[in-house]
Amino acid sequence: MNTRLLTSIYSLAPNGIAARVSLAVVASAGILYANLSPVIISGLAQDSGFTSEAAGYVFAGNMYGTAIGGFTIIFLINQLNWKWTAVALAALLICSDLLSAQFETADVLYIIRFIHGLIGGALVGVGMSVIARTENPERTIAFAIVIQLSLGGIGAAVITPLLATVGVSAVWIALTGLSTLALALVPFLDRYPVTNGQDGRPPSAGRASGSNILLALAALFSFQAGQMAAFAYRIELGTHYGFETGLVSLVIAVSLLAGAPSGLAVAWWSTRSGRLLPACIGVGLMTSVTGMLLIPNYWVFGAASIGFAVFFTVAFPYLLGVASEMDNSGQMAAIGAFVSSLGLATGPAIAATLLGENNHEQVLKFSCAALATSAVLVFGPSRMLDRRERHKRVVW
Predict the structure, then answer these.
(1) What are the structural domains, with CATH classification, of the chain?
(2) At what angle do helices 331-355 and 298-324 cross, to 10 degrees?
């Protein structure tokens, strides 16, 4: 098929802000639902056909589909025309969300949301592989986090009051908006060819050592599992403490919106201080505020929720950026997206298992342990990258 059909008369500068934001939209479309996880789980739990545990498993199934979709695209990314692939996946994503809105039974939603995950994960993998080919991919990842948190905050504020009357289908319909925008932006983006290594080797030969790759991916998985276990049941945690659902959803909305400016700060700061320091500080602070959620006080709950979003926005772009810089082709970025999705799926699954009879304290203790482990794991690979090229993208 002629690739010129997807080439706009006007093409955005490959490393300009407009292109970074557009790539962030493409990479975010398949994973935006994760930022609405408390709304999704609360909405499903309010349905007579679901328990809190079953609601968590529906979300986990969606995330496992995302992980598998991201894993599958890893082996195809260098053979596909990324623009045509992104367009096809975005269109299918819209269809699967609209289909989800037509059903409210657990058995059917398990299947549809798993398929949605497969499509979304592949789109995230495509987007991340292209982002990894840009200068300072942390900046574009930060823009993606800003988009996801901002829309997650707006969604929590607007959709939560609708759950009692419209149901969780309001979430599925809302998600089609970002997918439609991604579909419209793809033609304006550059081809982003693979970068060759510094010594002229083919791109497939240019990558970090296996031990550094494994540590970077393990850090990313542990972080995502820990943070999502704490985040997915946030509305349920608030009601467990006796707070009003409306106030809890407002806290979540405000916290997500408060985290967005931190993403802009990361996009501006990028690697001025390298990767090691901001990654470890961000994850360490994330662990601390997660521990604060163990205190059943409304003001502490609010402050911890805001800190959780802010420090997530700081830590995650660096963790994913470290994984993305492990090779030249963008394949490691696609693997990073898969591992990230796997962590996002595993966190709520473990949380649903630990929850039992509203045992939220066990869930939060697991989250703290997973986050602290991530800080330890990311130390080695981030220091290695800083030693090779502290302030710019590493080219192998």
Answers:
(1) 13-189+208-385 (1.20.1250.20)
(2) 150
